[in-house]
Amino acid sequence: MKRILSHFEGVDYPALLLTLALGALGGGMASLLHLPLALLLGSLVVTGVVAAAGWRPFGRGIVLPIGLRSAFVPVIGVSIGGAFTPAVVAEAVAWWPSLLALLVFLPIMHGVGYVIFTRGGLPKLESFFGAVPGGLIEAVQMGEEAGGDVRLMTVLQFLRLILTIVSVPLIFMVLTGAVVGSAGGVELPAAAVVLSAYEVAVLLAVGVLGVMVGKALRFPAAIMTGPILFSAVAHAAGIVHGVPPAWLVGVTQVVVGCSLGARFAGVERAMLLRAARLAVLNGAVALGIAFGIAWALMPLVGEPVAAVFLAFAPGGLAEMSLIALSLQMSVVYVTVHHVARIVLSVLVAKGARRWIG
């Protein structure tokens, strides 16, 4: 908690309110246009464009403290935990083919990204850590320790994440005809439960304890995986039956979208354009390979091709889980694979960083 509060020290609160207002405006406009994952993508696009252009409405820049995002992301984890039912857990034994496929998919994607970036003229060190297909924070940190350019690696990693977040909902809309919705589209069976004061207290405790224990035990993406674990146990044990309401998940989408958009503040345009061209190519190849693997694995794991594709799409854990929640599509399957992707990506990068140095 102290670490989260420390991120709010010295925050320009008028700028923060402006950022959230712009994000809400973008999300609202995207919702009116019936765009996929409207609240997240609308807030991301509006704040990202303003931040990258260096505009300062009312003399204020785009800002969003990491602590604010960290306070809301557990909402997604608690919601996902409500999808862990005994029936779903029983099905998990059939997922081993796709979990093993990650051992092939991730090194291929890392290698492809590295080749694309180096052939595009980027330094080898930054290309290696910028191409890690998961664990954004860990990858940038390892690259910094190795002497790499933090700004370039951060831009490459954020562009991977953001391009995937933008592309996947559009791909789903074309393939399935279903719009990846905003908070209004998030409906788990547990969402029909009217929350009592007791259940609200339990859900809050599950989220807070999940983050604390997850960080203490150094879980990957602890602010997501800790609440997922605690929420799953609480729901399986019958301690609680409901999940966070749709409006709170919608607010979370706006906060997450603004946090991604704010990362473009201060980035040099020349660097951004150069990295963007290479990141688009890398992202297109990654999604193409993910789609091919999805078709191959579909009959082996008993999941629809769209769910397998979503499980292999190299986006963020929180964002991909939001899409799965919105589509009511194999939420646990998708989440488990993205957790495994992050862990394996970081382990491979750690093992190879001595070689790349």
How does this structure look, described?
The chain has 357 residues and is mainly alpha-helical. It has helices spanning 2-6, 13-32, 38-53, 66-81, 86-91, 96-119, 124-130, 136-145, 150-176, 197-216, 222-236, 246-262, 269-301, 305-312, 317-327, 331-356. It has one domain. The chain is 73% helix and 0% strand. Mean pLDDT is 84; it is low at 182-189.
Could you outline the blueprint of secondary structure elements for this entry?
Elements: H1 2-6, H2 13-32, H3 38-53, H4 66-81, H5 86-91, H6 96-119, H7 124-130, H8 136-145, H9 150-176, H10 197-216, H11 222-236, H12 246-262, H13 269-301, H14 305-312, H15 317-327, H16 331-356
Helix pairs in contact: 2-3, 2-12, 3-12, 4-10, 4-11, 4-12, 4-15, 6-7, 6-13, 6-16, 7-8, 7-9, 8-9, 8-16, 9-13, 10-11, 13-14, 14-16, 15-16
How many domains is the backbone divided into?
1
Tell me how many strands there are.
Answer: 0
Tell me, briefly, the overall form: globular
How far the N terminus sits from the C terminus, by CA atoms, comes to 36 Å
* H/E topology pattern: HHHHHHHHHHHHHHHH
Number of helices: 16
- Spans of 5+ residues with little confidence (pLDDT < 50)? 182-189
